[in-house]
């Protein structure tokens, strides 16, 4: 079994048929369902909230990977935990007390993660590694699907990989490293080679008629890393 996980972003799914889209992409091999929450405040776009997450929960037989692009975060963390989130990640710039928000996620029995924008330094991770189950590196500026992968992210993935490997050697705790934005069949192998193990893909999967074929091609690429 490969340790790589694919997390299709339903931001690019057909919003009029979301339950069916979630079922179909899981049948096609999704390991997680990436749920992009945008508030038209932290990012210039507006998507869906906890009620939609709750409604999709019966269709989601894999964990829901909630990516909060909202400010502030604490109230919505509670709502999404109640709505069935498995993983909740947020941007450190959007919380006044990052350590407290991470603890809150953990207390609600969800996995916790921080999301770093392209210009955010990896130093924000240093003092909270014990609280993290996942680091999510943005390879586009958050707010929209269908943007191009920012190549500089590869350098950052290597940097965070080294940090997480060192932490795992000391603590025995594994922290997942997820990459979000512009991930395609063509570049997934190079992103994995840099050190990522979890891959968000929105337009690359939902933009094609055959989800199983795309996820299969991604796994084929990953098997060669
Ligand atoms: C962007 C979102 C991404 C987005 C990825 O703010 O966080 O999850 O849906 O979409 P693609 O894969 O199309 O770049
Ligand atoms: Zn996302």
UniProtKB/TrEMBL annotation:
GO biological process: pentose catabolic process; pentose-phosphate shunt; reductive pentose-phosphate cycle
Pfam families: Ribul_P_3_epim
Binding site for a divalent metal cation: 34, 36, 67, 180
Cofactor(s) of this protein: Zn(2+); Co(2+); Mn(2+); a divalent metal cation
GO MF, one example: metal ion binding
InterPro entries: Aldolase_TIM, Ribul_P_3_epim, Ribul_P_3_epim-like, RibuloseP-bd_barrel
Textual note on the cofactor: Binds 1 divalent metal cation per subunit.
Positions contributing to substrate binding: 9, 67, 143-146, 180-182, 202-203
EC number annotated for this UniProt entry: 5.1.3.1
Enzyme class per UniProt: isomerase
Domain of life: Bacteria
Signal peptide: none
Keyword Metal-binding: yes
Gene Ontology cellular-component terms listed: cytoplasm
Location of the active site: 36 (proton acceptor), 180 (proton donor)
Catalytic reactions of this protein: D-ribulose 5-phosphate = D-xylulose 5-phosphate
Alphabetical keyword list: Calvin cycle, Carbohydrate metabolism, Cobalt, Isomerase, Manganese, Metal-binding, Zinc
Pathway: Carbohydrate degradation
UniProt cross-references to NCBIfam families, sorted A to Z: PRK05581.1-4 (NF004076), rpe (TIGR01163)
Family that this chain belongs to: Belongs to the ribulose-phosphate 3-epimerase family.
Function: Catalyzes the reversible epimerization of D-ribulose 5-phosphate to D-xylulose 5-phosphate.
Name by which UniProt lists this protein: Ribulose-phosphate 3-epimerase
Organism: Neisseria weixii
């Amino acid at each position: 079994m490969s340790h790589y996980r694919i997390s299709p972003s339903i931001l690019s799914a057909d919003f009029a048929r979301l339950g069916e889209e979630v079922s179909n992409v899981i049948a096609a091999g999704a390991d997680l369902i990436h749920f992009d929450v945008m508030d038209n405040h932290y990012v210039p776009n507006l998507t869906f909230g906890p009620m939609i997450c709750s409604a999709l929960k019966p269709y989601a037989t894999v964990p829901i990977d909630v990516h909060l692009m909202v400010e502030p975060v604490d109230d919505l963390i509670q709502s999404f935990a109640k709505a069935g989130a498995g993983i909740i990640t947020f941007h450190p710039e959007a919380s006044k007390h990052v350590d407290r928000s991470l603890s809150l996620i953990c207390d609600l029995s969800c996995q916790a993660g921080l999301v770093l924008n392209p210009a955010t330094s990896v130093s924000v991770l240093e003092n909270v590694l014990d609280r993290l189950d996942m680091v999510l590196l943005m390879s586009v500026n958050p707010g929209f699907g269908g943007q191009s992968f920012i190549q500089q992210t590869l350098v950052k993935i290597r940097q965070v990989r080294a940090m997480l490997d060192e932490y795992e050697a000391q603590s025995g705790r594994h922290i997942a490293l997820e990459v979000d934005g512009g991930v395609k069949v063509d570049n997934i192998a190079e992103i994995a080679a840099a050190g990522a193990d979890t891959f968000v893909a929105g337009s690359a999967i939902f933009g094609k008629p055959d989800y199983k074929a795309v996820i299969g091609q991604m796994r084929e690429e990953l098997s060669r890393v």
